Amino acid sequence: MTTTFYVLINIIVLFFFLLIGMSIFNKSKRKFCAICASVFLTWVFFLFLNWINLFNNKVIIALLIGQSITGIYYAIEKKVKEELTLFRLPFLITLTIIGYALLAPKDYIIKNILLLLFLWVLYLFIYLYRNNKNINFIIKKIIECCKRW
User: Do 61 and 40 contact (CB within 8 A), yes or no?
Assistant: First the structure.
C-alpha cells in the first residue's frame, strides 16, 4: 500500500474520533470543524515524521497543508469587514509562503519575504488612499473579484 493510503486512513480515523469526542466532551458553544482538525493534525504528524526522515511523501503533506490554507483563508474571510477583504491576496500569499516554508525552509526565505513585504506595503498604500477616486475604483475591482454569487 502507498503512504498516501495511511495518510488518508489517518484523516478518516481522526475525523470520527474528533467528531465523537466533540459531541461527548465539548459542551461549550465553541465548536471546531472535525474535518479541518483531522487534516491539520494529520499533516502536522506526517510533517514531523518527514523532518525526522521517517516519511518522505511531501506531495501529500503539501496537499493537506494547501487544504488547511484554504480553510484558514475562508474562515478569516467570513469574519472580517468587507473593506478588509481587499487584503485577500497578500493574506493568501502569506499563508502559502508559510506552508512552503514548512516543507522547504532554506530554499527561498529572502526573496519570498521581500516579495511578501512589497505586496503588503502595496496593499497598505492602496488601503490608506482608498478615498482617492482612482484608488477606490481599483479597491472595488479587487473586492468584487472574489465576491460570492
Answer: no
59, 88: one domain = no
**Interatomic CA distance for residues 47 and 45, integer angstroms:** 5
Which segments within 12-134 are labelled E, that is strand? none
Q: pLDDT confidence of 40, banded at 50, 70, 90?
A: very high
**Which 3 state secondary structure label does DSSP give 52?**
coil
What phi-psi label fits residue 144: left (phi over 0), alpha (psi between -120 and 50 degrees) or beta?
Answer: alpha
Angstrom distance (rounded) from CA 74 to CA 78: 6
Structural domain span for residue 53:
1-79
Does the reported pTM lie above 0.70?
yes
The last residue of a domain, from among 79, 101, 121 = 79
CA distance 85 to 87: 5
Structurally, the chain folds into a number of domains equal to: 2
